[in-house]
Amino acid sequence: MAGLYCTTLSILYCICIIGMANGAEIRKDTISVEEFTEMKKMMTNLLEKYQAQERRIADFEFEIQTLKSKDKIENYSTEIMMEKEKSEIPKTKRDLPQDISSFRTSNDPNDNTNENQMTQHDSNLHNGKEVRIVPHPTESVVAFYAYMSSNENSPGTHHTLIYDHEMTNVGNGYNKHSGIFTAPVEGVYVFSWTIFMNQPGEYMSIEITLNSQPVGASFVHGVNDYATVSGNAVLYMQKDDVVFTRTHTTYVPHGSIRSDTIMRSAFSGWCISCH
């Protein structure tokens, strides 16, 4: 476009020169100052128009390049979104059931269960609802808590304590009839027991045992007031190992264990890492 304009300008310039020359021949090859000034003015105007046109052309070219760059950016963004959507498709396919037998089969030609299941599944995929297989938890939950519903009067040595009122027994490991906890799974367990004496001045030693072997003990003795003691133990247990509390095997207890609405003698345990 700029080249065409320059060609036009050159032609006009030649016409001006020829016209002035013809006029000069008529006037015996002489050019007046007025004619020269007029010709110079015409050339100046043409030059200014040419420069203005060049600036406009440069502006147009810059605008065109800007629009092209913008189109490239938009196209690139569109491609990124398309690739992202494509990447979600394999993810959805991975979540589909691997075994076709998960869909119920039937020889009954009137049974549309399979077709309905597939239609619902396709509808979920279309609506963006992916089928996800939730893994089963690897750890088991085991916990129990029980207390004595009444006093244990004057127990002797080597006497198993029975907490007959069961409040919690997740995993069914505790037996409220025997006072024994049997580990349903292998793991690390925490046990806690609390004993109240029935009268001031009474005393007693309580053992906690693992498979009938003492693994901990607590002693309670209140001289002038009611006395209480709590104990804790953290034990690693194999499946079917047993834990229970009892009075000391050789230290003779003196008094009774109290358990009522005011104070509860209790036994509890829970698994902190079971498999």
Topology:
Layout: H1 2-26, H2 33-94, H3 113-126, E1 143-147, E2 165-170, E3 174-175, E4 180-182, E5 187-197, E6 203-210, E7 213-221, E8 228-237, E9 242-247, E10 257-258, E11 266-274
Antiparallel strand pairs: 1-2, 1-11, 3-4, 4-9, 5-8, 5-10, 5-11, 6-7, 6-9
Protein described:
- Residues 84-97 have a biased composition (Basic and acidic residues).
- Its main location: secreted.
- There is one protein chain.
- The chain is an alpha+beta fold.
- It has three helices and eleven strands, in the order H-H-H-E-E-E-E-E-E-E-E-E-E-E.
- The protein has helices at residues 2-26, 33-94, 113-126, and strands at residues 143-147, 165-170, 174-175, 180-182, 187-197, 203-210, 213-221, 228-237, 242-247, 257-258, 266-274.
- Helix 1 packs antiparallel against helix 2.
- The longest helix has 62 residues, at 33-94.
- The protein starts with a helix and ends with a strand.
How would you summarize what this structure contains?
The protein is built from 3 helices and 11 strands; from the N terminus they run H-H-H-E-E-E-E-E-E-E-E-E-E-E. The chain has 275 residues and is of the alpha+beta class. The chain folds into 2 domains: 2-91; 143-274, Jelly Rolls, CATH 2.60.120.
Which tags fit this structure?
secreted; alpha+beta; coiled coil; single chain; signal; 275 residues; Tumour_necrosis_fac-like_dom; Jelly Rolls; 11 strands
